[in-house]
Design a protein that fits this description.
Strand content: 35-45%
Number of helices: 6
Distance between the termini: 65 Å
Structural class: alpha+beta
Number of domains: 3
Radius of gyration: 25 Å
CATH class of the largest domain: Alpha Beta
CATH topology of the largest domain: DNA Polymerase III, Chain A, domain 2
Number of strands: 27
Length: 372
């Protein structure tokens, strides 16, 4: 295999593929990236056996087609350290990769390409729905932050994907909060698709693939795999991931249906107020008090041996009786960071009942209160 490629394009593709490469593995092939140069196109693949990715590289000139299996770590370091605009890669029959720049030459001892486990090809006959990268990326961004980390309930270490007709929603929870984001498919299969739980790591990688909001995205299921194609034709990238086994919690039962208090805020003003109130909290006093009134919200916090804070923010509209409730400010800030609407609505029932934060008709966030 022999080729010359744009260094920046190569670096971007390597960074994306390397995000799947396991940091520790006894299988040498899994610590490598597979290069396939064929039909004028260079594709780089990586897998940790749970998640696999295959991505094309732009701006490549191929003089000899072929395949190579090159250790990811050193190749990444070489490409990042280079200041050349282009790099040449030449891999001989003994799997030695020679990377040349204007004033540098590196040799990396690779492995036999046949040792690479491979990445599941996209099964075009099993497409469940199609959408755009912008829409799917938005749903991922609005839910991924609420997943559990290192929780023994493995089913909530991922995001639920639920499609009914041309409506799709992603749902995430860690047991103390719940995020539900809804969107539209451009095309969908007949009927409803079975629900599935996608691992958090896979969605983190997928989010990086969805850089161009106009890219078409197709989602397919095959056995216990979810396979996503981003782009079209030979230039499309593919991500395949094993699904999380187990049952997702009955999240619809968690979303409160009856609230008698409804508050409308300017999203930017509320974000600023919560950020400032969070300053004087610590591990012992994680909560902030939120006193809702007809025209203002007063946020207060205090931390022993640190001090106290009080911030006032105007309410655009308030329906209901005044009420005080405590929340973990991190959980409020996390959701405000992913809301891109100018207004945010908070619905409340009682100080010991969950609060609901909404942005438009397509995003709902349920958060448990804390005692103060």
């Amino acid at each position: 295999m022999k080729l010359v490629c744009d260094r920046i394009a190569l670096s971007d593709a390597l960074a994306l593929a390397s995000s799947v490469v396991p940091t520790r593995t006894t299988a040498a092939a899994l610590s490598c990236l597979k290069f396939v140069a064929r039909d004028g196109l260079l594709t780089i693949s990586a897998t940790d056996t749970e998640i696999g990715i295959s991505t094309p590289v732009a701006s490549v000139s191929i003089s000899d087609e072929g395949e190579a299996l090159i250790p990811a770590d050193k190749l990444n370091q070489i490409v990042r350290a280079s200041e050349d605009s282009t790099l040449s890669i030449d891999v001989n029959a003994k799997n030695v990769a020679v990377i040349k720049g204007q004033d540098s030459t590196f040799k990396i001892f690779g492995h036999e390409p046949r040792e690479f486990p491979g990445v599941q090809a996209f099964p075009a006959s099993k497409i469940e729905f199609e959408t755009t990268a912008g829409m799917l990326g938005r749903l991922i961004h609005r839910t991924l932050f609420a997943t559990a980390v290192d929780n023994s309930r493995y089913a909530i270490n991922g995001v639920l994907v639920d499609r009914k007709g041309k409506k799709v929603r992603l749902v995430a929870t860690d047991g103390r909060r719940l995020a539900v984001a809804k969107g539209e498919c451009t095309r969908a299969g007949d009927g409803d698709a079975p629900q599935c739980i996608v691992p958090t790591k896979a969605l983190n990688v997928l989010g990086k693939l969805l850089s161009d909001p106009d890219d078409p995205v197709a989602v397919a299921r095959q056995d216990n795999l979810l396979i996503v194609r981003v782009g079209e034709g030979a230039d499309a990238a593919t991500l395949a991931t094993r699904l999380v086994e187990g049952s997702f919690p009955p999240f619809e039962d968690v979303i409160p249906k009856e609230h008698d208090k409804r508050v409308t805020f300017d999203a930017g003003e509320l974000t600023s107020a919560v950020r400032r109130a969070e300053i004087l909290t610590n591990e012992e006093s994680k909560g902030i008090r939120m006193a809702f009134g007809a025209t203002q919200l007063v946020l207060s916090s205090r931390a022993p041996e640190l001090g106290e804070a009080e911030i006032t923010v105007d309410v655009e509209k308030y329906e209901g009786e005044p009420m005080e409730i405590g929340f973990n400010p991190k959980f409020i800030m996390d959701v405000l960071k992913v809301i891109d609407s100018p207004q945010v609505i908070i619905e409340l029932k009682a100080p010991n009942k969950p609060g609901v934060i909404k942005a438009g008709n397509d995003f709902t966030y349920v958060v448990m209160p804390v005692s103060l």
